[in-house]
Amino acid sequence: MIKPHILSGALLAMALACGAQAAGKTDLRFSNAWVRATPPNAKVAGGFIRIENTGKSADRLISASTSLAASAEIHEMKMQGDMMQMRQLSEGLAIPAKQTVTLQPGDVHLMLIAPKQPIVEGQKVNIILLFEKAGSQTVEFTAHKQAPMTKDRQHLQH
After folding, report:
1. What b/e string do you get for 3-35 counting C-beta neighbours within 10 Å, with b at 16 or more?
2. Could you give the count of Cα atoms lying within 13 Å of 47 in the half-sphere of its Cβ?
3. Contact (Cβ atoms closer than 8 angstroms) between residue 92 and residue 103
4. Interatomic CA distance for residues 158 and 155, integer angstroms
5. Sequence-distant (≥ 6) Cβ neighbours of residue 22 within 8 angstroms
6. How far is Cα 92 from Cα 131, in angstroms, rounded to an integer?
7. Running DSSP on this structure, what letter comes out for residue 138?
8. Nearest to residue 63, comparing CAs of 89, 34, 42, 44?
9. DSSP SS3 for 52
10. Do 73 and 61 contact (CB within 8 A), yes or no?
11. pLDDT per residue over 44-90, tens digit each?
12. pLDDT > 70 in the chain, percent
């Protein structure tokens, strides 16, 4: 029979090891994180981000969560014939090694379902992104009425 203090010590050691792995260095880099500002009583809001995987192995975005909404899902919009369709990516989203994946309007994005209050321009929103390998990553998103200008988009307008 295992003594309670030995068992609790072993469980604590395992928890610390898992925490150290999740809090440790990640090969993922996040940029251009923003959510769409919403009108009052909006039923959904979109979240968008650029995820760069600088590592030698692929990872997978499994889920997202935020205290701002009842739930968050990973969605994809695609043309099916002449009709735009949206579906949840229940298997998550692959983040290939040495590549960048951009979640953007009209494509893959985060869907914040049932926001608990309107999201206002300039508001900071923490969203927890859960990855298969990198673990839980809290990213700060900024609310905008439309996609903010990035260096890539500025070059397109010249």
Report:
1. eeeeeeeeeeeeeeeeeeeeeeebbbeeebbbb
2. 31
3. no
4. 6
5. 134, 135, 136
6. 9
7. E
8. 89
9. strand
10. no
11. 999 999 999 999 999 999 999 999 999 999 999 987 888 888 899 99
12. 79
Q: How far is 140 from 123, CA to CA, in rounded Å? A: 10
Compute the distance between CA of residue 107 and CA of residue 86 in angstroms, rounded to an integer: 9
Amino acid at 11: L
Rg, Å, the chain Cα set: 19
CB 30 within 8 A of CB 103: no
**Paired tokens of 86:** 């949206």
Global confidence as pTM: 0.78
- Find tokens 């760069």 and name the residue: 52
The sign of the dihedral angle between the CA atoms of 94, 97, 102, 106 is negative
Burial class from Cβ neighbours inside 10 Å (0-12, 13-18, 19+) for residue 106 reads: exposed
45 SS3 class: strand
Q: Where are the alpha helices (DSSP H) in the chain?
A: 4-23, 151-156
Coil, helix or strand for 82? coil
